[in-house]
Amino acid sequence: MGLSGSSPLGPLAGTFFLSPPFFQLLQHLDDEMIVILDFGSQFTQLIARRIREQKVYCEIHPCTVPLEKIKALQPQGIILSGGPSSVLGENAPTIDPELFDWGVPVLGICYGQQLMVSLLGGKVENSDHSEYGRTGIHIDHEGTFFQDVPQEKEVVVWMSHGDRVISIPQGFEVLATSQSSPYAAIAHLEKKFFGIQFHPEVVHTNYGTQVLKNFIFEICGCEGSWSMQSFMETQLEQIRKRVGKEKVLCALSGGVDSSVVAALLHKAIGDQLVCVFVDNGLLRQGEADRVIKLFRTHLHVNLIHVDAKRLFLDKLIGVTDPEKKRKIIGNTFIEIFDAESTKLNEVRFLAQGTLYPDVIESESFKGPSAVIKSHHNVGGLPEDMKMELVEPLRELFKDEVRELGLTLGLDEDVVFRHPFPGPGLGIRILGEITDERVETLQKADKIVMTEIKKAGWYRKVWQSFAVLLPVKSVGVMGDCRTYEWTVALRCVDSKDAMTADWTHLPYDLLGRISNRIVNEVPKVNRVVYDITSKPPGTIEWE
């Protein structure tokens, strides 16, 4: 349904849509799998991404998941993540010790290493010499775990721990040491248990990816057979099996997620898919025509187009508070979507573009701690909601969704489209939203997109856009005094939008964008560049 970032539902979708139970186990996408048990590390998603980059499928589950459910997944290996807790704490998160009797290779990272040592008879203590940041380790063992990692010199790794192992369990041996950690890497080679005090998943650790590759391929015996082609084929089969001859309703925004969901469902069930595209008047210039042409003309999707520009803009007259804007836009979309869905007879399924980070952020992957946030894709439905959810992208990261889009044959212009907020330009127009101000921002935004693409920067950055500020300033144009609006340019680099840094665009590119906006967009006489990172700022201004 494309509700991840690019959805017309925006942040209110959680009020209306319910994801399947978290512990509902996914069908195997391939014969091999690595399971990551999360103890609250800020790097857990990175572990999963590094493994999937090697074409090995993996899933993240809370450390509290019952052992029998882990066994049901039949993983080739288990990874215990790091975490902020101390194994010496009274309420330290833990796992069922029987996991170590199962016969599956286990890798413990940071907290995971300390927990493994503690459960198997070793000792951990609070250290007077904590290690944070880059640290050098010395590898003292020639074996498959550190295969292709230089052993004749110090290897730089990333440490982040206060506790340290002081005694290892019986049968374990030392593989590497650091100045403050005599057990920087340990292993029970016969049982294939490995523990490392550093984080191999972060870019600051030299040869970290190689260490993970050695574990999943050399220790766990994975072959790297997972691909987008195999994922697509499996999903097509599962969709057909679950949906049967029933209709599926999909809210289409034209963003990456919703476009890929629609393309995948159409390939699976053809005309059983009905897409509803609501034009709220807050889209980019020409966006509605682009979406209609793509899905009706090129993909031959059964598309219902609702032109609701006047309805949305009339409701937004005089509204300046960003949260009120979001609620008005979200509620109005729901009203329209509900009205259109009732016109369709007996629609049983609702398609939604939930991605894996949405699930991770919304479920308690922090073990016993609090949920990070309730994401709009995985919130709650009314009890009387009769449609069942179809979420074919639920196991994928954003870059994997883009890869799937290419596998489905979607154009790169669609697949690599920059994220666009659910409320659209409504939260990029600070202050009151009027027809005139929408048209002004659409023209400025068009110039930004055109110049960014022409300069070859569109695929280099995560997101770029224009913001219309409720600020007027004095200018001089044609020897006359002007007092007009200001446009802010926002361009950021990011991996997943959790954090972002402002992009260092070339000065000549910034100059061209500024010159074109002030010369071609009426009632704008100033352009500024936002150089705020996230945190402390956010990517969007509202």
List keywords for this structure.
Rossmann fold, nine-stranded mixed beta sheet, single chain, alpha/beta, disordered N terminus, 3 domains, GMP_synthase, five-stranded parallel beta sheet, GMP synthase [glutamine-hydrolyzing], ligase, 542 residues, NAD/GMP_synthase, GMP Synthetase, Chain A, domain 3, 30% helix, GMPS_ATP_PPase_dom
Could you characterize the architecture of this molecule?
The protein has 542 residues and is an alpha/beta fold. The protein has 3 domains: 10-22 and 227-415, HUPs (Rossmann fold, 3-Layer(aba) Sandwich); 34-219, Class I glutamine amidotransferase (GATase) domain (Rossmann fold, 3-Layer(aba) Sandwich), CATH 3.40.50; 430-529, GMP Synthetase, Chain A, domain 3 (2-Layer Sandwich). Helices cover 30% and strands 23% of the residues. It contains 14 helices and 18 strands. It has helices spanning 44-52, 67-72, 111-119, 208-219, 228-243, 256-269, 287-298, 309-315, 322-343, 356-362, 398-407, 412-415, 435-454, 507-520; strands at 34-38, 58-62, 77-80, 106-109, 123-139, 155-167, 173-178, 185-188, 193-196, 248-251, 273-279, 302-307, 349-351, 388-390, 463-477, 480-493, 501-502, 524-529. The strands form 3 sheets. The protein has a 9-stranded mixed β-sheet with strand order 2-1-3-4-9-8-7-5-6, with helices on both faces. Strands 12-11-10-13-14 form a 5-stranded parallel β-sheet, sandwiched between helices. Strand 15 and strand 16 form a beta hairpin. Helix 13 runs antiparallel to helix 14 (507-520). The protein is globular, with a radius of gyration of 26 Å. The two termini are 23 Å apart. It catalyses: XMP + L-glutamine + ATP + H2O = GMP + L-glutamate + AMP + diphosphate + 2 H(+). It comes from SAR324 cluster bacterium. It is an enzyme of class 6 (ligase). Catalyzes the synthesis of GMP from XMP.
